[in-house]
Amino acid sequence: MKKLILINGTMGVGKTTTCNELIKILNPSVYLDGDWCWNMNPFIVTEETKKIVQDNIRYLLRNFLNCSIYKYVLFSWVMHQEKILNNIINTLDGIEFQLYKFSLVCSEQALEKRLSIDVNLGLRNEEIIDRSLERLEMYQDMDTFKIDVSSITPLQAAEQIKQIVGEIDNEDNSCR
């Protein structure tokens, strides 16, 4: 059965890097990043652009979940509210898959250090630090497996996700 693995977390926590490791150890797999659907210039968030992005995400997820080649479909995005996760999942009706939801979390100090490196490299604007820190706590109350990445590598985080997915597979109780 297909496995949809959602990787969630605030900006800069390591979702992309963890998924890039995870795709190497889960085969056959495909990785989709919600940020790819927001890569626009100028970056304008309106109800219209949000709808387009969410429609595109749903379309891509449906297509890959229906593709016979891939067993694992990985999707990462900043989904800081349960309703964002549910809006995506609820549009996948008619497709049989096992769902795994993970939130990458870390200490404020670790997050600030990571984002500061990105700011110094010119990869992010400095205002991202406060925005990301404000959202960090929101993930604690979500109905997801939590992976604390404060002091582990992205590969170690990916290995933890792989282990949890394997344990749930063995229990066979996460069918959608």
The SS-based structural class is alpha/beta
DSSP helix fraction: 40-55%
CATH architecture identity: 3-Layer(aba) Sandwich
Give the oligomer, counting copies of the same chain as homo and different chains as hetero.
single chain
Q: N- to C-terminal separation? A: 10 Å
Instruction: Quote the CATH topology.
Output: Rossmann fold
Query: How much is the radius of gyration in Å?
Result: 16 Å
**Count of distinct structural domains:** 1
Helix segment count? 6
Indicate the low-confidence ranges by residue numbers: none
CATH superfamily: P-loop containing nucleotide triphosphate hydrolases
Residue fraction in strands: 15-25%
Q: Please identify the top-level CATH class.
A: Alpha Beta
Q: What pattern of helices and strands is seen along the backbone?
A: EHEHEHEHHEH
Q: List how many beta strands DSSP finds.
A: 5
| pLDDT averaged over residues | 91
Order of strands, widest sheet: 2-3-1-4-5
Give a quick set of tags describing it:
176 residues, 18% strand, Rossmann fold, alpha/beta, 45% helix, 6 helices, 5 strands, five-stranded parallel β-sheet
Please render the helix and strand layout as text.
Elements: E1 2-8, H1 15-25, E2 29-33, H2 47-66, E3 72-77, H3 82-89, E4 97-105, H4 108-120, H5 128-136, E5 145-148, H6 154-171
Parallel strand pairs: 1-3, 1-4, 2-3, 4-5
Note down, in words, how this protein is organized.
The chain is built from six helices and five strands. It has a single domain, classed as Rossmann fold. The protein starts with a strand and ends in a 5-residue tail after the last helix. With 176 residues, the chain is of the alpha/beta class. It has helices at residues 15-25, 47-66, 82-89, 108-120, 128-136, 154-171; strands at 2-8, 29-33, 72-77, 97-105, 145-148. α1 (15-25) packs across α6 and α4 (108-120) runs antiparallel to α5 (128-136). The model has no long low-confidence stretch (mean pLDDT 91). A five-stranded parallel sheet has the order 2-3-1-4-5, with helices on both faces. The longest helix is centred in the N-terminal third of the chain and has 20 residues, at 47-66. 45% of the residues lie in helices and 18% in strands.
